[in-house]
């Protein structure tokens, strides 16, 4: 057994070296993430091919994913009485952070594929780096989830967001009714209480929305009774972008939350580290079980705000520190 005393300086240097390596690799992959992603999920119930130049049997009936060739409307797969067109694993939507793109999730995508969620089960939200309002990106996410459910036949999706991407997903779930369509939301290094990092970047509206006390964060702090989605927030004690680091812990009395501390990992490394990928897979697998109605946060969730000495009125965070 290793009985060496903790060495905070060595841990920080190790994390910094990893951050620099991740940054170098990401710069190489970044151009690939700028290419428009092709959606590969199967179509809805109507998969019968049409002959070119042949009109539909019922031209007066609008053709939708829920409309058959005979003009009759099939049950909506989101209805309890409807039969899902696809009984496989729930689709996953990935949301990148500020001025980033989907290439940041290349390692996580491989982990999801090994767990049975291959290229036809995972897609990314491609919001523009020129977006000036988090709520605009959340509305875009709402449209993509609606389209994804129509294409896949599923009733729910899972979301994974890094940094700003986690806030966008939270806004969709809490403020735009997304909790009816999202089973589990996993957030990596997300500034739930705002971060003071990078004051020189305040010229960008999205950065201002990530500041403590911003209008968007005040909206997210409002009551959210009955919210159905599970929230899992992974935060690191060496996340240099989250200032203070505890801001990446989610504390909300109405939400079903599990906070997980991941030690020894910086902000950029969160989406690519194996221990984080394992926690994401665990969170998505845990989401298969339905919570008891109206139970709210329970013994296995952490919703309290930790103090500087680690004290908290809530159950302690789970620890998934990197080796």
Give the CA-based shape.
Answer: globular
What would you call the structural class? Answer: alpha/beta
Residue ranges: pLDDT <50 for 5 or more in a row? 41-85, 292-313
Order of helices and strands: HEHEHEHEHHEEHE
Radius of gyration computed on alpha carbons: 21 Å
The helix content, as a percent range, equals 25-40%
- The termini sit apart by 14 Å
Number of helical regions: 7
Strand content: 5-15%
List keywords for this structure.
323 residues; alpha/beta; seven-stranded parallel sheet; 7 helices
Summarize the structure.
By secondary structure, the chain is of the alpha/beta class.
Describe what this molecule looks like in 3D.
This protein has 323 residues and is α/β, with parallel strands linked by helices. The protein contains 7 helices and 7 strands; from the N terminus they run H-E-H-E-H-E-H-E-H-H-E-E-H-E. A 7-stranded parallel β-sheet has the order 2-1-3-4-5-6-7, with helices on both faces. It starts with 7 loop residues before the first helix and ends with a strand. The model is unreliable at 41-85 and 292-313 (pLDDT under 50).
Question: How is the secondary structure organized here?
Answer:
Layout: H1 8-29, E1 92-95, H2 106-114, E2 122-124, H3 134-152, E3 157-162, H4 164-175, E4 182-188, H5 205-209, H6 215-221, E5 230-235, E6 256-261, H7 274-286, E7 318-319
Parallel strand pairs: 1-2, 1-3, 3-4, 4-5, 5-6, 6-7
């Amino acid at each position: 057994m290793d009985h060496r005393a903790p060495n905070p300086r060595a841990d920080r240097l190790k994390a910094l070296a990893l951050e620099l390596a991740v940054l170098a690799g990401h710069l190489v992959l970044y151009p690939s993430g700028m290419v428009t992603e092709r959606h590969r999920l199967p179509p809805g119930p109507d998969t019968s091919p049409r002959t070119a130049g042949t009109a539909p049997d019922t031209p007066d009936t609008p053709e939708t994913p829920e409309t058959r060739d005979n003009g009759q409307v099939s049950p909506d797969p989101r209805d309890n009485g409807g039969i899902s067109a696809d009984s496989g694993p729930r689709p996953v939507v990935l949301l990148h952070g500020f001025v980033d793109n989907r290439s940041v999730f290349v390692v996580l995508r491989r982990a999801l594929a090994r767990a049975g969620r291959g290229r036809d089960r995972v897609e990314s939200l491609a919001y523009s780096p020129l977006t000036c309002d988090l709520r605009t990106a959340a509305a875009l996410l709402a449209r993509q989830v609606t389209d994804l459910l129509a294409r896949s036949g599923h009733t729910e999706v899972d979301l994974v967001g890094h940094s700003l991407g986690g806030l966008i997903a939270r806004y969709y779930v809490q403020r735009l009714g997304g909790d009816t369509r999202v089973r589990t939301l996993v957030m990596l290094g997300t500034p739930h209480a705002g971060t003071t990092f990078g004051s020189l970047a305040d010229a960008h509206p999205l950065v201002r929305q990530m500041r403590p006390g911003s209008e968007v964060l005040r909206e997210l702090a409002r009551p959210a009774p009955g919210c159905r989605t599970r929230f899992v927030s992974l935060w690191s004690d060496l996340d240099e972008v989250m200032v203070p680091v505890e801001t990446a812990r989610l504390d909300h009395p109405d939400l079903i939350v599990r906070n997980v501390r991941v030690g020894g990992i910086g902000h950029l490394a969160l989406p690519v580290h194996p221990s984080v990928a394992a926690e994401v897979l665990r969170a998505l697998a845990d989401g298969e079980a339905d919570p008891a109605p109206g139970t709210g946060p329970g013994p296995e969730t952490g919703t309290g705000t930790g103090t500087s000495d680690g004290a908290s009125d809530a159950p302690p965070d789970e620890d998934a520190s990197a080796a």
